[in-house]
Design brief:
Layout (H helix, E strand, L loop, with lengths): L2 H9 L23 H8 L2 E2 L4 E2 L4 H10 L13 H20 L9 H10 L2 E6 L4 E6 L3 H19 L5 E3 L8 E3 L12 H21 L1
Antiparallel strand pairs: 1-2, 3-4, 5-6
Helix pairs in contact: 2-6, 4-5, 5-6
Length: 211
C-alpha cells in the first residue's frame, strides 16, 4: 500500500475502489452527488503512473457494471471502437477539468455533443418535487456515456462543475473536487504535488540567479 493510499484510508471510512487502488482517491472528500461518478470516470486514467483502467473491452465492461452504469446481468460486449469512443469522451471532459484550474488546453465539445446524441437523451419530470432531469434512453455503452454527460450538464447548471479540477502538477493531473472556501485550490494534495511544485519553482529561481 502506498503512503498516499495509507493516508487516504486513515482520513476516510469509505473503502478505496479496487479499480483505483493506490491512487489519491480519498485524499480529498468526494465530489457532491453524481459529480463523484464523473470524477471517478476521469480518474480511470492515471497520468502519473501511465495506467488506464479502461484499456480494453473487458475492463470497460467491468467498470461500467461496478459503477452501476449498466445492469450487472445485462448483456454487454463492448468493442475496441467502444473503448476508443469512451476514451475520447474522457479526454474531452478531462480537458474541461484542466481549464477549471486555469490550465490552457484544447477541448473537443463535438465529442461530448456526439455522445449526448448517441445516448438519445430525453427529459424526465417529477411532479412531486417539481424537478426535471436529463435521462439517456439508449442502452449499453451509449446509455452509460449519456449518464456521465448528463451529470456534467447538471453540475454545469448548478455551478459545481467549476470546482472539478485537474491537479496543476502536469505530471499528476489527478481529478479532484475543490472543497476550499474560495475555490482556489490548485493541487490534489498540498503535501505532495503542492510541495513538489514549490520545490521546482525554487530550483528554477536558483538556476536563474546563478546565470
Amino acid at each position: 500500500m502506498s503512503r498516499l493510499t495509507a493516508r487516504a484510508r486513515r482520513d476516510s471510512q469509505t473503502p478505496l475502489p479496487a479499480s483505483l487502488a493506490g491512487q489519491l482517491e480519498l485524499v480529498r472528500p468526494p465530489a457532491p452527488g453524481q459529480l463523484e461518478l464523473v470524477r471517478n470516470f476521469l480518474n480511470t486514467l492515471d497520468v502519473e503512473h501511465g495506467a488506464d483502467a479502461l484499456d480494453g473491452p473487458e475492463p470497460l465492461a467491468g467498470w461500467l457494471r461496478e459503477n452501476g452504469l449498466v445492469e450487472r446481468k445485462a448483456a454487454l460486449r463492448p468493442t475496441r471502437a467502444d473503448v476508443e469512443r469512451v476514451r475520447r469522451v474522457r479526454d474531452a471532459l478531462r480537458a474541461l477539468a484542466q481549464r477549471n484550474n486555469g490550465i490552457p488546453c484544447e477541448c473537443e465539445p463535438a465529442v461530448l455533443e456526439a455522445a449526448s446524441r448517441a445516448a438519445e437523451i430525453a427529459m424526465s419530470f417529477d411532479p412531486h418535487t417539481s424537478t426535471s432531469q436529463l435521462r439517456p434512453t439508449a442502452p449499453g455503452v451509449d446509455g452509460a456515456l449519456g449518464r456521465i454527460v448528463s451529470a456534467v450538464h447538471a453540475a454545469m447548471a448548478d455551478k459545481t462543475w467549476l470546482r472539478l479540477k485537474a491537479c496543476a502538477d502536469d505530471g499528476c493531473a489527478w481529478i479532484y473536487f475543490d472543497h476550499s472556501k474560495n475555490g482556489c485550490s490548485r493541487w490534489c494534495s498540498a503535501e505532495t504535488c503542492g510541495n513538489r511544485s514549490k520545490v521546482k519553482r525554487y530550483r528554477e529561481r536558483q538556476a536563474q540567479a546563478a546565470k
